[in-house]
Amino acid sequence: MGEDYKLIAAITPNTTNWTAKVVVLEKSSARTAYHSPTKYQNVVLMDMERNKVHATIYDTNIQAFQDQLLPSKTYLISNAAVRLTKPEYRSTVGEIQWTISGRTKVQELQEDHTAFISSTYIFTPFDRLHGHMDSKTDISIIGVAIDIKPKRFIHTRSGTQSCIQDVVLVNQRFETVLLTMWDQFVEKECIYISDNFNKKPIIVASHLKVSSFSGVSISTKSNSTFSFNPPIEQATQLHNWVQENNEQLSQVFMKKDYLSTKPTKLSSPGKEQITDIRNIQGLLVVQHHFWVEARAYVRVFNQSFWYMACDICNKISNASFGETYACIFCKSPNARAAARAKVFVELEDSTASINGTMIGEPAERMLQCSAYRLMTLTSPANQLQVLDEARITVEENHFFYLKAVKKDGHTDQWKYDIIFMLEPSTIRENVQPVNHPEHSSSTSQTINFVPQLMPPPAKRVLFEVPPTSASNKRLTEETLLHSNAETAVPKLSTIATPAMKNKEKVPGSK
């Protein structure tokens, strides 16, 4: 580096008359601040010693620098405003922030640092995304956009409405992942993808998060950045792969197998990730997602094991099964009513028990019954028809991934959603295919991932009584059918627990 150029690390708020030679790593879209009408744009700069700094452009200066400070380009920057940022506003690249304005001298250099820039990227492989699930870790990914779904609207827990749009990305192993774009990214990045869809654009994205919502997927954050077909080595290699496999990628798009049958591989958690159920309540201050190793029981038998839902957003619907309608939640004019499994269960380990709700694929896996089958079995006159075919106990330990959600903003009461259920085999094989619930068709009469097994004995032991006690059996069934959950649960738990754990017949009362 020339003697007249300062390294980023040497530039402080007290440094004057300085010039730095930098390359632009990221440049975000312009956005509006949450609590003011101020517009801003973030830029990440790096010098030749790999020091990085976060720079911001505000308001009218955004338009002025529209054609400057472009990703992968090299610039000389002189006398930008330098300040320390408050801890709560600091980015991942340090405590110093530059402000670039009309007073800042910016000069582009005709230098190619492609190899240097390429070496700074660390992309997370698609099959390792689950390792960052629901964490605060920022990830970067590279992939080819092969599909984009219609945008839809959702209602957030804060009472606001957001616009989201899903993009399907594929890598060189033909693995796919769903990228959910939120709000401002729908207005710009998704429009670019739609306009250039046939060209199969290469996407490099940074500052993304991995979510367990509706399966393992990735989504944007407020500071996410995107580059399309950037001049880096990884993108060039991926572009060449697209050219060589263009016909096969077109077939993948036409078949859309990634929407129905292609599973996401989810590794079993390590021992250090497992939380005892008795400790969950005390940890809610610092975390809301937990892995537990437990057994599962259906204690409440007069619950509904399915509901009618929009096939796009999975929100409840009053339409008839298979009917096309306009969803009031996601605003889709062509939503279709589909059955969706739902079951309220109790998880129990050696320390305590906890109640939770499974919806979608985990519920079908728990009950070993498809949502369509649960719907056809349900009869207002006889709820026990469902129990004749559904599994209602899981006596072997399984891994369950829970999300704690406050019931409302005015209490400290929590409910628990069970996002994943991993079979015991994952302990040995260390990997478990988990179908993305949004990609699973609940309207199908057969579910590929549900094994065709005989109904497990444990579920029927609950109702077995000696032949001489037929009157007791009728009494028990009447209690199940006509009692509400609050009155039925204590009676059923007293009867069922020994049977489920010891697999013994319930003795008749005298």
From TrEMBL:
Keywords: DNA-binding. The keyword NAD does not apply. Residues 292-416 form the Replication factor A C-terminal domain. One of its GO terms (molecular function) is DNA binding. It comes from the Eukaryota. It comes from Abeliophyllum distichum. PANTHER family: OS03G0429900 PROTEIN (PTHR47165:SF4). Residues 5-107 form the Replication protein A 70 kDa DNA-binding subunit B/D first OB fold domain. The keyword DNA-binding applies. This is Replication protein A 70 kDa DNA-binding subunit B. Residues 133-228 form the Replication protein A OB domain.
